[in-house]
Amino acid sequence: MPVASSPSDYTSINPNYATGQGFYTDIGAVSDLLQVTPFTSGTNPSAAQVGSIIKRIEGMVDEKINRSYRPIIWKNEFKDFEFTRHPIMSYYGGYVGFVQLQQMKIRKIVSLRVWEGNAYRELASAQGSITLLENFRDIHSLIFQLPNSGVSFELLAENDVSALANDEFCTTFGIKTTNNEIVDLINEKFPSNTSQFTGATASKELSSSNLNISDFFFSQKDDQDGTKVLISSLLSGDDGAGCSLKATIQQSCTTSNTSTSLTVADSSKLAVDMEVTGTNIPSSTTISSIDTSTTVTLSKAATGSASSTLTFTTTNEIPTVCSIVAFTDKEDMKRLGDFWMMSDDGRIFFLKKYPYHNKNSIIVSYVAGDGRVPSTVHEATTKLVAAEILRHDDQTIMIAETGANISAKEKYDLLRAEGMALIDGKKDLVYMLD
Description:
The protein is of the alpha+beta class. 19% of the residues lie in helices and 30% in strands.
């Protein structure tokens, strides 16, 4: 039976590796074990350097145990599907078939796509999409907003490679390359697929109000359409249906005081109901009609005459530039719904909606990670981090000696051996029964 919690669990979880706070341990526990003064920005090693070691050791612990105690996204796990019960009998057994995921302790099914003969159908989460069109380089930005008019994340487009920042996506090359850039920016990962073209040397990152976009959204390219990017909400269940997705374009325009007529550069890339913002434009102004190739009518009159760059925002489509599908609820996860799951065991059961009975008919992306950090994992991580510090110690910090005068080398060997022994005890055993 899975353990929900224990008084011995490590609960001081405030992950920020830059300040030495990890998921499994922290700089306070490490300094206490080594019997040294607390690590700070001025010590050697510094708190940030110890945090980097903690991050590295936590990854090693996950790989050794083959289970994570922190949230990890697993992408595009392919599964075959076979019927284990005839559909007529499914309501008696609760499912027509199931798949076993490689990981257990599933926190969230981000994407569950099932093959239906000519396309994959999405069954999980709340999902939206962006499809780039022929004039995709004219896009100015993409905006993701959290529910209830919450925090917005704006992904700016950049057509000049030499000016590309880590919080922007490059539109210099083709549609598929641009989509790779968008995916990596949303997921805040190193753009390995495009770095050889853009010269990127660091991970993409985008934050707003001290929040990171990758904590709320996960993106991947459509396997069947390279022009389309799929974006799933990481909020629980279908809560992500309250998120909004917008695209913007900018044009040089001329306003005329008290007039609703607006002169634009190219009206073929604009649409009715697009929101207009900028100099001399009242709030909540939209396009009422497209009149000529260079003029449109606004819903409100301009407050002055001037030539300036205005921004046009849409939740639907920028003609010839991109099209958007808003976040919609795809999930009917319950015992008598499309599918249901045993989260702790990593098993998904299909009932109403299920894939064709063939190979690789299911593609799953999910967040896995135990919700608790056992004391053994905390102790093992702390000892392994301390051992790593000892291995690099050059006596610029004073490692306290014990009464038995154990050398630094002996301490290293002892801490590492004890840490690895604790990890070995946490490995899952898998029994294969014929």
